[in-house]
Amino acid sequence: MKKNFVLLITLLLMLALFSGCPRNNIHSSSDFSAVNNAENKSNSNTVSMENSKNSSQSVNSINRDDVNMDTILTTLDKSMLSEYDYSKLKNQNVTLNVCNWGEYMAVNQDDYFDVNKEFEKLTGIKVNYKTFATNEELYSKLKSGGGDYDIVIPSDYMISKMIKEGLIQKLDFDNIPNFSYIDKKFVGLEYDPENEYSVPYTWGIVCIVYNKKMVKKEITGWCDLWDDANDNNILMFNNPRDAFGIALTYLGYSQNTEDKRELEEAASTLKQQKNLVQAYVMDEIFDKIGGESSAIAPYYAGDVQTMIDENPNLDFCIPKEGTNKFVDAACIPTAAKNKEAAEMYINFLNEVQVAYANCDYLCYSTPHTGVYSLFDEKTKANPLRCPPDDYLNEKTEVFINLSDETNAYTQELWNQIKIEKSKSPWLVPAFLLISIALTFFLNIRRSRKKKQDIF
């Protein structure tokens, strides 16, 4: 009896081992870690993840030689669209409220077909298109209920914050089959680890843009933003997350640290830099560096590419110390009134030709494998458009949402930096000199008046 029992147990163990082999083989590579994270998702998300694994098959069906690259930006070719029913919501009087960054989509541009107008013609859905200037502005609108949006395109750390606070909802990936084009390197990142809430739109890195004629030595990294040689020619980001991110990287710390000591050290480093800084700005970097009123600044790689195209005196540096990798992604707010139509719009943004037009217009990097297959060799070799994988893996970090306590403390430190910045280092000495001179003048005047009174 005991022998039979042992034999039965042995058979059951062998059966379990053999039935587990195929599953283990599928997920043995670390490259599929995002897929492993997705195993506990809903059925629709599991399907989408499996599709994302097979994105290379979609890429193989797109050949640059088979595409009319002369007209791909100016005329929407319906033969390039996927087999998706874009007509299913026609004549239902649907309006989509979309909120995106300013100048962040090919709309109302002479050299590009209008993405929103083409979507309207294809679907019968009206697009009401709005823009925002910062992640924090968009967050405030959603938090207050003032933003009646169906689609928003925030950045990584803000997506994490919105997930935590219930401001955006899970997507039905059955309605977004073009998610299969998203490179698996951009699936399951820190800000949306199960990839249930977002579809990457663009990505890029923060680099350094500088004027070759105005700088006095070779630019190699963030250290040059603390170099006296660039005194009064340096521009710095005017927001705490980006500014502290640069300082922390310069010091060798994580951009996502919550260690108060490290944040205080970064603040001290930014205070040391302040006397070299010409101005704290954001989008003004584009005009100030392009117009050659400043020499060097941190900026987003896509915009840097545009600046260099417009001014041959400009060049770029990818910081040797490392940098921030940012991802902007399409999401659907919890209060959206037209979820299915919103998912249709997201799918349209990921049609190969549409995604290519947006990418070409923005000059940002693409998470879309179909778009990448249409790049020429020069674009693929350009580190602003396609940064090297080894640098991305070893030297970059994606912002994640920090605790409320850390955000408040960082803001407090930033306020101190800005207050000190507003005080000229010569203000106190000048005040003392003026006071001494005024006292001397008054004493002489009194002395003369006394003499006059005596005589």
Overall 3D form:
globular
Low-confidence stretches: 1-60, 421-425, 427-432, 444-455
Q: What profile does the largest beta sheet have?
A: 5 strands, mixed
Question: Helical region count?
Answer: 18
User: How far apart, in Å, are the first and last alpha carbons?
Assistant: 136 Å
Which CATH class of the largest domain is shown?
Answer: Alpha Beta
Proportion of residues in helical segments = 40-55%
Q: Gyration radius, to the nearest Å? A: 28 Å
Given the helix and strand composition, which structural class is it? alpha/beta
**What is the N-to-C order of secondary-structure elements (H for helix, E for strand)?**
HHHHEHEHEHEEHHEHEHEEHHHHHEHH
How many strands?
Answer: 10
The CATH homology group name of the largest domain: Periplasmic binding protein-like II
Strand content: 5-15%
Features:
45% helix; 455 residues; disordered C terminus; disordered N terminus; 3-stranded parallel sheet; D-Maltodextrin-Binding Protein, domain 2; alpha/beta; globular; 2 domains; 18 helices; 5-stranded mixed sheet; single chain; 10 strands
Characterize the structure shown.
Helix 5 links the parallel strand 1 and strand 2. Helices cover 45% and strands 13% of the residues. The longest helix has 28 residues, at 427-454. Residues 1-60, 421-425, 427-432 and 444-455 have low confidence and may be disordered. With 455 residues, the chain is of the alpha/beta class. The protein has two domains: 31-198 and 331-387, D-Maltodextrin-Binding Protein, domain 2 (3-Layer(aba) Sandwich), CATH 3.40.190; 204-325 and 404-421, D-Maltodextrin-Binding Protein, domain 2 (3-Layer(aba) Sandwich). The strands form three sheets. Strands 4, 7, 8, 9 and 10 form a five-stranded mixed sheet that branches. Strands 2-1-3 form a three-stranded parallel sheet.
